[in-house]
Amino acid sequence: MEKGKKGLRNVFALGFVSFFTDISTEMIIGLLPTFIVEELGAGKAILGLIDGIADVLNYLFRIISGLISDKLGVRKIVVLAGYAISNFAKPGFAFVRSWTQALAIRVTDRIGKGVRTSARDALLAESVDDKSLGKAFGLHRTLDQMGAILGPGLAALLLSFIGTRGVFLSSFIPGLAALFVLTFFVEEKKVSRKHTEGIMKDINLVLTPEFIYFLAAVALFSIGAYSPSFVLVKSRQIGIPYTAIPLVYAGINLLHTIVAIPAGVLSDKIGGAKTISMGYLLFAMASLAFSIMSGIKVVFIATLLFGAYVGIIETVQRAIVAKFGPSDLRGTAYGLYYMVVGFCSMGANLIFGILWDVLGSKQAFMYSTVTSLIGFIAMIVFANRLGS
Questions:
Q1: Is the pTM of this model over 0.85?
Q2: How many CB atoms lie within 10 A of CB 227?
Q3: Angle at which helices 272-292 and 245-270 pack, to 10 degrees?
């Protein structure tokens, strides 16, 4: 598959796969944290445990799928398997009666995400020239997040008519649409295998000193980067009605969408590391707002900051990874990146949830403020090291 217009079509097709999948996923995620805490009776530490276990397995399978797709020299079949696992698992939330059952469904869904993500990102990166990586990932992220805006809005609309469990069950419909687009509109690009020495040799080729430093800076930030679930639970605690919680999530996703393409374009111009550091600073400001401010106004302020942070990080960190290591080992590079983020995410959500239960939400958000500022400094040093 030649790059250019064909590659751009592939970016759009992958974007619409993510669009429909995110409608399905975010119909659920906008309601799931408060559902787990209020209906299933779990505490904040349990919520953090669920998100943490799901995330670490998600990211663990990303390195496995990245290695496999590199070894096979194909991407699409791995991507299709991952999307199928997730989209057939998620409606199961309609039938859970305990937090352990919710954990099982959440883990299965996130394993599916892990299976598809590294191979999909590699396929996306191979569809365009290196100079257009930021723009391509920004475009993909924008289409993805359009679904993430529509999903919670659709959930809020349906909630009064079919209830929480009905919303969970109806998520199956957009999930099927995603599988249809992937099967018939996404084109495979056969990867020429240049490195065949073995898995550990491949990993060593990717782990350059620059990539190791980048991963270290990401880890310093990610160890305090709590999931959006805690933003929703905090919003509910502040006084946002249950039926409006999906709209808070939609607000986060709206800012994410608005920021994605400009962040990608900015990273192509000034450098990825500098752009990422801006995202870390926005997260620190959102965490500080939740720590020192009170009243419903903080939900609005923190939602804007948190959404902008996600838009930058989810676009630019993924784009910059493609620049490390040989082109035929991009799946491996993405897998290593996601493994670091995943283990840190598990620790972050568990620590954050325990701090909330034991010391209170203000102390938990202050912990994340401090760790994100440390990550900000580390990424600035990395940017200066690269001259970008």
A1: no
A2: 21
A3: 150
Q: Mind listing the pLDDT tens digit for each residue in 203-220?
A: 777 778 888 999 999 999
Cβ atoms 212, 121 nearer than 8 A: no
Question: How far is residue 17 from each of residues 20, 66, 139, measured CA to CA in Å?
Answer: 6, 19, 13
**Contact indicator for 342, 174 with CB cutoff of 8 Å:** no
- Give the phi and the psi of residue 98 in degrees, each rounded to 5: -150, 160
Cα Rg, the chain, nearest whole Å? 20
CA-CA distance, 252 to 228, in Å (whole number)? 9
DSSP codes joined into one string, 314-371: HHHHHHHHTTSS-GGGHHHHHHHHHHHHHHHHHHHHHHHHHHHHHH-HHHHHHHHHHH
**Domain spans of the chain, in order of start:** 5-186+197-386
Alpha carbon 116 to its chain centroid, in Å, reads: 12
Instruction: Round to whole Å and give the CA distance between 304 and 299.
Output: 9
- Quick check: 253 and 26 in contact, CB under 8 A? yes
Average model confidence (pLDDT) for the chain? 87
The predicted-structure confidence for 175-214, as pLDDT tens digits, reads as follows 999 999 999 998 876 655 554 454 455 677 777 888 899 9
- CATH level 3 topology of 5-186+197-386: Growth Hormone; Chain: A; (1.20.1250)
309-346 CB burial, b ≥16 within 10 A, e <16: bbbbbbbbbbbbbbbbbeebbbbbbbbbbbbbbbbbbb
Question: What is the DSSP annotation of 233-297?
Answer: HHHHHHT--GGGHHHHHHHHHHHHHHHHHHHHHHHHHH-HHHHHHHHHHHHHHHHHHHHH--STH
**Whole-number Å distance between alpha carbons of 201 and 196:** 8
Give the phi and the psi of residue 213 in degrees, each rounded to 5.
-65, -40
Place of tokens 């690009």: 189
Question: Comparing 345 with 16, which gets the higher pLDDT?
Answer: 16
